[in-house]
Structures are given as C-alpha cells and as structure tokens.
Fold Succinyl-CoA ligase [ADP-forming] subunit beta, mitochondrial.
Amino acid sequence: MASILRKSSLVLAELAAKSSPRVLATAGQRRNLNVQEHVSYSFLNEAGIPTPKFGVATSGQEAEKIAKDLNTKNLVLKAQVLAGGRGKGTFKNGLKGGVRVVFSPKEAQAIGGKMINQLLVTKQTGAAGRICNSVMVAERKFPRREFYFAVMMERAFNGPVLIASSQGGVNIEEVAAENPDAIVYEPIDIKAGLQKNQALAIAKKVGLEDHAEETAKMLLNMYD
C-alpha cells in the first residue's frame, strides 16, 4: 500500500506543477500559478504527504553529488521546465527526453549536464522550446498501481473539485479523452472545505476501499 500511495503522491506533485485543460474541459483565463515540480514535492512534504527523496541540481556536478547522497542505483532525472510532455521532448542539443532513468552518479552527471541550460522542445512549448535551468534528481519508484488525485478550480462546479481516477499516471489527459467514466469528480464546498466522508467516498470509488482511511487522510492533507 505504501508504494501505491507514494506513487499517487508523485502524480500529485506532477499535477500541482501544471494544470490540465483537457481534464478541466476549460480554456479560460490563465492564472500563472505554475510552479516547478520540485516546489510541488516540497509542498506535499510539508503537508505530510510522502514523495520520493529528491534534490535539485543546476550543474552536472551537483546532479552527481545528489545522486550519491540518495544512495540508490535507481534514479530519475527530470528537467525542470514548465511544460507537459517532457518525457517525450527533445533538447535542441539532440538529447532525447526531459525525463531520464539513470543508474549511477556518473550517469546522472553526464545526462544532467546535457539537460541544464539547454532548450527543451515538447508538444506544449512550440518549436522555440523552453530553457531548462535545473534538474530534479529523484529516487525511482516501482509502483504496483497508479492513481490520479488532484484538486482544481472548475467552472462547471463553480468552485474547487476533487478529481480522482484509478487509471493514473502520466497519461491522465488521454484517460479523460478516451475513457471519461474512469474519472471521478467530487465538488467541494469552498467554505466548508473537503470533508472526511467525501474523501472516504473517493477512496472507495477508485478501488482503495481496503485502504480508505489512509487515502482519505492524504486527500484531506492535500486539500488543507
């Protein structure tokens, strides 16, 4: 269960760092509240939600040091660029992928050094790309299942809504487009906030009834 929820928290961090207009089904005003993924991880940790251990590097040498400190051979390097589709993106120096799995500090140094201060082109950046000023070096996790949880402002509900799915992971936008019934929406009273009975209901709807209390606690912490 811990690995399941930890992967869910990783997905939460991804989603806290960007909004998904396809899931929200809106194309309205941009609030410019995007933050880098590593900042989202820190927010989650402060709320008592576990994430993989990580560090932020601004050079290949720093990436190597962080990798050594993490003391694992299973690592992920993530370009800190405010754009979706990083994993399938390409740097203008020819390096493929803004999310890369590495297996040693030396490899972290080599790959990280090729990401930092380079332009990453993804489906959301346009041909110009966006500069990668830093790389997040994180533990690589091996989830048994992936879930999606997010709190977003939704005009259709005139306020915040908790969105959840048992088909989580990096392709949640595709789930929304191809199998919308797999996504659960729970409107939240903006004055009362998310209630425990709502969080428990969401946990059960996505198939976590055996771990409903633990999941509900995470959701309540996420909202608060």
Observations:
- The chain has two domains: 53-139, 148-223.
- The CA atoms of residues 79 and 135 lie 5 Å apart.
